[in-house]
Amino acid sequence: MAESNRTTEVAELILCNNEANIYDCNQSDPMGSQMPIPLTDAWLVPVFFILIMFVGLVGNSLVIYVVVKNQQMKTVTNVYIVNLATTDILFLVCCVPFTATLYTLPSWIFGDFMCRLINYLQQVTAQATCITLSAMSVDRFYVTVYPLQSLRHRTPQMALSVCTTIWICSLLLSVPIALYQHTESSFWFGPQTYCTEAFPSLIHKRAYILYSFLAVYLLPLITICMCYTFMLKRMAQATVEPVNGCNQVKLQTPAERVEAVRTRVSRMVVVMVLLFLLCWGPIQILILLQAFCSEDVSHSYTLYKLKIWAHCMSYSNSSINPVIYAFMGANFRKAFRSVFPLIFKRSARTTQPLPTYNREMNFLSS
């Protein structure tokens, strides 16, 4: 969820709660000068954001490139992965650089239109990311629990239609952010401009924050948990005989090998979902607490510091997914090696996947 009053909060809490705390926040400097922002926040957080942005843009762009350029990579699962990479790129471009400036500049300098647009796009990308992960979980549930039916209905074209619907829904559901976001001028240690929200009342504000928490985090979490609960039950029903009384299992038939590949793909999706929930959970909970707690708690310096940490975690999620694909996706590793043969030359000689394995992987995700 986009944090609408981010500029006001950063400026007030940094200037009013730093260790020196020389000035009272209700007083204005007669000379109109601005207090310096604490150096740790002013450079460390932006540097971390820039690093996240660089890694995320390179990694997600590479993911999109290898899927588009390799025909065998154009599968149902990879359509969702490309959609997720697209949301990550848009989030990194629309969110990270503008948020980074708030730690070095106490005032919003990009105007009213950008105030509305940036916060709107942040909400859209967060919403699209959550729904895409939910769609991926439903897709893995369908192919695991109903493998034969999925052969008839799971197609890249269907996945592309689902992704289009996800973007349309995300654009519509995020409209309130564009309507209630605006810039506000004030005089506080000099003239300042803030990008903040203007809901008709506190009840409206809390209602939208609660709705956003449900739509962006809780409902997708419930959907994902239900899908994987049924998947685990289905996988527990599959039995194979041990070889010579030991714990090793011999996959003798193509159907058994297909089941093993399906499990590996599902495991990768599980890791992606868990990382998303861990990265975005803290900031969602803190925003909810800030909206419903007293002002002493919601405007405390402790909460501000916690939200810095939570923002770093949520932003880093957009750069983590390509790493997951590289380590857990055999087809992605092969595609990355084809793009950077010199880097992956040594690993290419030692980890060549079998042709049968590749055919089964494509069969599962087509």
Automatic annotation (TrEMBL):
InterPro entries noted in UniProt: GPCR_Rhodpsn, GPCR_Rhodpsn_7TM, KiSS_1_rcpt
Keywords on record: Cell membrane, Disulfide bond, G-protein coupled receptor, Glycoprotein, Membrane, Receptor, Transducer, Transmembrane, Transmembrane helix
Compartments where found: Cell membrane
Key word Membrane present: yes
Predominant cellular place of this UniProt entry's protein: membrane
GO CC terms, sorted: plasma membrane
Residues passing through the membrane, by range: 43-68, 80-100, 120-138, 159-180, 208-231, 269-288, 308-328
The keyword Glycoprotein belongs to this UniProt entry's keyword annotation: yes
MF-aspect GO terms: G protein-coupled peptide receptor activity
Domain G-protein coupled receptors family 1 profile, chain residue ranges per copy: 59-325
Topology of this chain in the membrane: Multi-pass membrane protein
Name under which the protein is recorded: G-protein coupled receptor 54-like
Source species of the chain: Sinocyclocheilus rhinocerous
Lineage, highest ranks first: Eukaryota, Metazoa, Chordata, Craniata, Vertebrata
Gene that this polypeptide is encoded by: kiss1rb
